Automatic annotation (TrEMBL), chains A, B:
One of its GO terms (molecular function) is formate-tetrahydrofolate ligase activity. The gene is fhs. It comes from Natronomicrosphaera hydrolytica. Pfam families: FTHFS. Pathway: One-carbon metabolism; tetrahydrofolate interconversion. Its EC number is 6.3.4.3. This is Formate--tetrahydrofolate ligase. SUPFAM superfamilies: P-loop containing nucleoside triphosphate hydrolases. ATP binds at residues 68-75.
Length: 578, 578
């Protein structure tokens, strides 16, 4: 990002208000609030019931162009825009964002609280345990995993007499069908391929994923209330029995205990921006094998209290935004009023043919000097994402996240191309360096977009066969010519229809670095067939996820990890987190 | 325990005060308090500094006879006694207890918040995540584990060029010497014996322990402040290099990040008893491979605020109390004024020759009908534990935790035998059924004991050779005739002296079901030689732990786990937790 002071320094210099004051100003009744220290609080679900009759505010989703590996500032834009609306334009505005995984914080990535002068604070809390929700997901996920292996072991040990002795049915889980992995919120590559129960006949190969990849996290994000979460957890399918029938968390009688473990995690976390506007931080499901959006419950509460709710969807419009529409909105019943498409000149230059952008390497001069040709060519990627938003029936506002090295001519060119592609508006934004003041123009454009006609509609009905739903997304969202299935995927597809999972929405699992399935294909790939390697079902969360390529669900630590710089100083303050 | 209403029902019917009110009444300044909802708060370490000049209150440690597998009510006594002192006898009294592991709550054990009318509340919070401290320990432990395997993998991949490329020294960890395990707070037997990194040349066998068995938990419990915790984490030894030198968390440059992960966990958690007296809940290290005592920091804060601090030590006097004296008091510099030895008629009958007591089975009539002969014989066990307390130089008060089926004659007999064995007093207590009112006599006896002459002293100096320290504990605390070392243990002993660990105190790892190393030997085993199978070092926490027998560090789930009864009801309330 631009060269401003370090995010941690800015965050620490900020003048925070007590969270009770933020809550009061935002219309959150003190009775709904559960403090976690002075600057964090959970909002309990009494708020939902008490506010049920209020009309909803405007619902704005933030998405982006296909990013470089550095990211293009979508969280910063979400925070910055909410600061502009709430602190500069006289609106009641909430930002709703995902809780970041702690693993990458100690690996390579650093924090994810926004950045510069558009951050959610205190940033240490945001990037570390917050109020423990991810830990609760870990606990619930792993209790279910332990239940599976313990049940197999006891059924094996007691044999035919298992039911007689324990009064429970023989589940007869087929170990080769187990899809439930254990999870930890740490980058631990050594856990990608492990063998467990090596001291018992039920020994088997399995793996750990990072916690945010757990289906439990997706359930938390998609649940509409506590009872709905309880039902979804019970529906989680962990394996098949030897007769090919689905085995669920309910069958293992563990869904109730999992709900108890998540009874506080279901309450959204209230924090504040650097400009003292409210932020709800809640849930952080993976953006590829899950839907990559923050929670329905947080959005629902915020919509009752705010004029504008700015919610972020993971990755670009082909992924997070499409899933926001077809999965999150499907389950919430909510309809977005507008989408913000964040872009950078840098990303468009990369799509236009610029050299590879790699984390930790200095940028090629193509990115630091004016190059209108690269920008012009790369605007096709922006146009494609605007098209996705338009196809869903809502207005798109392009936010050009401006860096100091970008020239006026480059920004102007992006603006023209965006408008030509059907954007309602396209404006430059400097909220990273200037906070909400840098996003006032963006805020006005978003307010205007929300007054435009809204023809939001889904691209596919749930009753459509699974293959056709996948084909619809591949063609109409990605621009693929067709889709292909491996033999395995085709068998799974048939099996899922038999098991009754056919009516679920689709959650595409593909790379975020290309609109296609191939991360090397930049800009707007054409004439490609999307290959579906495998199909999996998150029946509890409520979606089928086709795997198009290898999905990395457990990151590793680099040779010089970020944790080597993280410590406390003599005053007990955190250093090295950024 | 006695037949009263369920613990959860009693806890829920209790009239709780807001935690800020409990804090105010206990003399905890509002500035030191970090709320976690309405009924929990963390007390930050500003309290320690602000109160440094105040004199300490009386320090009472609660221990017990060798228990049956059902436990004899030590936590209940700790809570009940603090209720008696604080709510009935006009004293400022704090209870300081360990945070229980969540794993067993869902396995077989149920909750551990005390019981009946002597509980720490809200009991759901106490038994579940509380404020996330155990999760923070999990995260810190596993970040270190990931750092070890990632470092080995990168050193393997880069080979000779590792230092040149990354600027870090080649640690050259010998994989066969790694003693650092991963941890989870779940009963997951399948993780006792696993193989990791199966997709890499650094594949190796390892295991998960339950989180409370982590050395990080012991560090949390023994740290005297944040800087001391930072130092201890850095000193943790995880392996040896191929030259036989110790490899530490500091060598891996991860101790700073671990400290950051634990920066909130180091703050004790304030809760309340059913009678609105203050409880500090903090840390819960394993009682066998670690020292099994709550935190030094919680005790230090409480002693500045209270007339009486009642702190619990794990297991019986041969284990938790001995370690309280030789490890916790050694590092804290604090001195206990008296010890309470909790006993039941049931436990003494078992020691006197009664049939085995097993969880989940109904008790033999020997335990439900008067049997003075069994009680009389079993009082030798009580006398032995009184003797341990006396040998440490402080007065012992015996609390006879009375059950409805115990007869007056049985209780009277226990009382006489206790006094004959040198107890300062011995009284019956009915705090389970009656709350603090049932422990008023106990409270008066404890107050009187605290006024007696105190000759507290350690049984061994740190400079004594490791083998002699172990022999001293075996002979003077357990009554063993001698100790023996396996060849492996003898080699490790020599190695530890060379590595400079020789001056650490000893933390015996043995069964809690016998004073000896053999759980089958009840009452007072005689003429036994204590076999030391293996030696390990928790250099960060600060002790050597000799293993005398197999220690179970990862429990399993039974064939019908407790979690099958745990759920939420229609009002969203937890059911089935007890």
């Amino acid at each position: 990002m631009q060269s401003v002071s370090s995010d941690l320094d800015i965050a620490r210099a900020a003048s925070l208000k007590p969270i009770r004051e933020i809550a009061r100003e935002a219309g959150i009744h003190a009775d709904w609030l559960e403090d976690y220290g002075r600057y964090k609080a959970k909002v309990n679900l009494d708020a939902l019931h008490a506010l049920a009759d209020r009309p909803n505010g405007r619902y704005v989703v933030v998405t982006a162009v296909t990013p470089t590996p550095l990211g293009e500032g979508k969280t910063v834009a979400t925070i910055g825009l909410s600061q502009a609306l709430g602190a500069h334009l006289g609106q009641r505005a909430f930002a709703c964002v995902r809780q970041p995984s702690m693993g990458p914080t100690f690996g390579i990535k650093g924090g994810a609280a926004g950045g510069g002068y558009s951050q959610a604070v205190p940033m240490e809390d945001f990037n570390l345990h917050l109020t423990g929700d991810i830990h609760a997901v870990t606990a619930a996920n792993n209790l279910l995993a332990a239940a599976i292996d313990a049940r197999m072991m006891h059924e094996h040990n007691y044999g035919e007499r298992f039911t007689e002795i324990t009064g429970q049915p023989h589940l007869d889980i087929d170990p080769d069908t187990i899809t439930w992995n254990r999870v930890l919120d740490v980058n631990d590559r050594a856990l990608r391929d492990i063998e467990i129960s090596r001291d018992h006949e039920t020994r088997r190969a399995t793996r750990f994923d990072i916690t945010v990849a757990s289906e439990v996290m997706a359930v938390l994000a998609l649940a509409t209330d506590l009872a709905d979460m309880r039902q979804r957890l019970g529906r989680i399918v962990v394996a098949q029995d030897r007769a090919g029938q689905a085995v669920t968390a309910e069958d293992l009688k563990v869904a109730g205990a999992m709900t108890v473990l998540l009874k506080d995690a279901i309450k959204p976390n209230l924090m504040q921006t650097l400009e003292n506007t409210p932020v709800l931080v809640h849930a952080g499901p993976f953006g590829n094998i899950a839907h990559g959006n923050s929670s329905i419950i947080a959005d629902r509460i915020a919509l009752k209290l705010a004029d504008y709710v700015i919610t972020e969807a993971g990755f670009a419009a082909d992924l997070g935004f499409e899933k926001f529409c077809h999965i999150k909105c499907r389950y919430s019943g909510l309809t977005p009023d507008a989408a913000v498409v964040v872009t950078t000149v840098r990303a468009l230059k990369m799509h236009g043919g610029g050299p590879p952008v790699k984390p930790g390497r200095s940028l090629d001069p193509a990115y630091t000097r004016e190059n209108l040709q690269l920008v012009d060519a790369g605007c096709a990627n922006l146009a494609h994402h605007i098209g996705i938003v338009r196809r869903m029936g809502i207005p798109a506002v392009v936010a050009i996240n401006r860096f100091t090295e970008d020239t006026d001519a480059e920004v102007q060119l992006v603006r023209e191309r965006a408008l030509a592609a059907g954007a309602h508006d396209a404006v430059e934004a400097t909220h990273h360096a200037q906070g909400g003041a840098g996003a006032v123009t963006l805020g006005r454009a978003v307010m205007d977009a929300c007054e435009q006609p809204n023809r939001f509609d889904f691209l596919y009905p749930l009753e459509m066969p699974i293959a056709d739903k996948i084909r619809t997304i591949a063609r109409r969202v990605y621009g693929a010519s067709d889709i292909s299935f491996s033999d395995k995927a085709r068998q799974q597809l048939d099996r899922f229809e038999v098991l009754g999972f056919g009516d679920l929405p689709i959650c595409m699992a593909k790379t975020h670095l290309s609109i296609s399935h191939d991360p090397a294909l930049k800009n707007v790939p054409a004439d490609f067939v999307l290959p579906v390697r495998e199909l999996r079902a998150s029946v509890g969360a409520g979606f089928i996820y086709p795997l198009c390529g290898e999905m990395m669900t457990m990151p590793g630590l680099p040779s010089k990890p970020a944790f080597t710089n993280i410590d406390i100083d003599d005053q007990g303050q955190v250093i090295g987190l950024h």
